[in-house]
Design a protein that fits this description.
By secondary structure, the protein is of the alpha/beta class. Helix content is 48%, strand content 20%. Strand 6 and strand 7 form a beta hairpin. The longest helix is centred in the last third of the chain and has 26 residues, at 288-313.
Length: 314
Amino acid sequence: MITIQTLVTGNCPEIKNLFASVAHLNTETIVVNLGADQETIDICEEHNAHIIYAMPETDYSAALNAALHHKGYYLYMHPWEQLLTFDASLDERAYNVTVITSDIVVKEARIWNKETGIRFRNPICPVLNESTAYFCNCVLLSQPEPNLDRKLELIREWNTQEPHNSDAIYYYSTCLLALGKHKDFLNVAERYMRSNSKKTIASTMHKYYYAMVKALIMKESRPAIQNIIQCLTVNPLMAEFWCLLGDIYYNNIRRYDMAIEFYENATILGTRRLTNDKWPADISKYEEYPLKMIQSCKDLMASRVILKPLHQSS
């Protein structure tokens, strides 16, 4: 038996899809309500959810931790997520689950045993306070997170209260990126990189996003290349990193021969990734995208060869 736990604020009509996806488990869903509107509450009541009310300004993690009423295992889901697969026998302290959003696949610790003492941390953007190396056959389908403007306000307040908290700075920058506020993202991202020198998955991916914005939005190739090379020293099997290098040489530097080498590395080294590693994956970068870009590079190089004598004869 596993208990589903979620947290709602404002308007969350999409939570009806969550309820539909977990109905076959025949288990209880605990909904922590931090200011949801009546429509959302009505949906929760229609699905016989156990609603626990907390003040809207309550620390998210504190509210979730206070709502752990049952013994045994819990699965945390956001209200905009659906359960696609759950087929697991649970006996470890905690497990990573697979979360799919469009072509992006991430692994997150979402299942845990309450008796281990594992709890949520962070007043906004709650995550479990213990990582795990274990995986189980649980797959969630996620929609893009709604209400990011309000979330940004809350994270900004958190960052103001704890200006040296690297988690607050990290979530502040990633929320800015999700909202397309690229200049603000770069400024906050640089603060994060100065405050956190650890070579974790989160810090390395953050450096990758920083390089992406620098290269593709700001058209600043040098700092982008410097940062993406640092990413590759941490994990050379990430096709995303090689593809970004290819994109820089394709779009900015226009060295198509070099771009081909980087795209080829994406197709070759990307296949060596373990299926149960904890790094995120942009699925298209592992075959479809680099192959398409390699062909585009070859076409552009061929057109240059054809056009050169015509140019000289004129």
